[in-house]
Amino acid sequence: MPRRHLLIGLGPGAIAAAEVIRGADSAAEIVVVGADPHGYYSRPGLAYYLANEVPEEWLRPFTAAEFARLRLTIVGERAAAIDPGGHRVTLESGREIGYDRLLLATGSTAIPTRVPGAELDGVVKLDDLDDARDLIRRSRGAKAAVVVGGGITALEIVEGLHAHGVHVDYFMRQDRYWRNVLSETESQVVEQGLRDGGVTVHNFTELAGILGRDGRVAGVETGEGKRIACDLVAVAIGVRPRIELAQAAGLDCARGILVDDYLQSSAEDVYAAGDVAEAANHVTGRRTMEVLWNSAVIKGRTAGLNMATEPHSVYETGVPLNVTRLAGLHTTIIGTVGSGKDADLEGLSRGDSDTWSELGQAVIVETQAAGARVRLALGEHSLDGAVVMGDQALSFPLQELIEARADVAAIASSLKAAGAAIAEVVEGFWREWREQLV
After folding, report:
1. What is the CATH number of domain 4-109+240-308?
2. Do the first three CATH levels of 4-109+240-308 and 112-237 match, i.e. the same topology?
3. What SS3 class is residue 184?
4. Contact of 322 with 333, CB cutoff 8 Å
5. Cβ atoms of residues 178 and 191 within 8 Å
6. What's the CATH fold of domain 321-437?
7. Hey, what CATH topology would domain 112-237 get?
8. Which of 123, 280, 357, 437 has the fewest CB atoms found within 10 Å of its own CB?
9. In this predicted model, what pLDDT tens digit does every residue of 35-54 receive, in sequence order?
């Protein structure tokens, strides 16, 4: 009798698991439950779609033929309840589906604002493809918008609306953009890029209320009582993992669904991947959360392999990595690079990792080098993290060195004194290091 794998979710964690399961067991029955009418698409690509840089069809990671080869049964409904003891899931329609192995890859959802006026028509977010379509539609008739929040998603909305000719006032509660991840200089570079493009940046500004007229957004009021007229208010203050199903089923949860080294939850035959899986970091021992596409894929692959065989593949937390764009600058963020918390965010933003808010005792080396702004977090013997803004030639060498925890003690003093020549030092060491691996 073929084993039935039931996957809840239509994001990268679930689909990566499905790929691995199909590769390991050609006879397996794979059922995917998800209510998103658009199926599987790239969430990171929404920023480029919103900014009119890519057409909607480019958001699809697979062609229809490639997707069909996975031989998935797609059930376009929401799961309402899980019975781990009975190995079955109940859908909102009342239909029950049994399973041998279950994967929870339910993702995360945007945290809504709670200020007065939040229910008005014209309060928007960027959580999925429908939201991106809605923002594009509304931008055609909007003259001005206020964007509130920190992190990558807020900037995606700012730049997307601006690309459609909407004037944007950008509110930050703190002194600078994404302060728990970026350095002061990096934040200033981003903010200046926005100002140069025509965005009005408001530091130390809190949204106190949203003003309406005939049920629609007409403006906002700040914490200091200032009023700004606008047609749209976009909120990006973080995301919250969708763990309600798991909690109701009695699975052990904290911020996310607690999983072991094999990504199995506290219930037998129930696994978790993607934004909802809270796994332990083998280096620090801390449990961490990430809202990163690549991390979701790796978790999905690991969970899928353990579901298709017997649990033996250990999930390695690895080094968080994101390649994004901030105010027009291509930016790569790797490893531990920041410190503290960000008052502009109530949770992680999309494209964010717990690890980025850590720094420890690292020595910071920051310089402008060969068309790139580079910041290194230099640990006692290895590179703990890096941020590269602009030219990305150094990104791959730094990624390899950080992920391998390569011993860079021999060039530590050179890195600290290199200044603009830091690229030559890193690239020279990286080439020698790679030759020694062969």
Report:
1. 3.50.50.60
2. yes
3. helix
4. yes
5. no
6. Enolase-like; domain 1 (3.30.390)
7. FAD/NAD(P)-binding domain (3.50.50)
8. 437
9. 999 999 999 999 999 999 99
CA distance 412 to 170: 39
Token pair in block for residue 195: 């100002």
Nearest to 87 by CA among 96, 74, 79: 96
Q: What confidence tens digit (pLDDT) does each residue in 284-327 have?
A: 778 889 999 999 999 999 999 999 998 889 998 888 999 999 99
CA angle (142 as vertex; 141, 146 as ends), nearest 5: 160
Q: Give residue-wise pLDDT tens across range 104-118.
A: 999 999 999 999 999
Task: Name every residue whose Cβ is closer than 8 Å to that of residue 98 and which is 6 or more positions away in sequence.
Answer: 4, 86, 87, 88
Dihedral sign of CA atoms 379, 384, 387, 388 in order = positive
For the chain, the helix, strand and coil percentages under 3-state DSSP, each to the nearest 5: 30, 30, 40
CB 107 within 8 A of CB 8: no
Whole-structure pTM value? 0.93
Return the half-sphere exposure (C-beta side, CA atoms, 13 A cut-off) of residue 82.
26
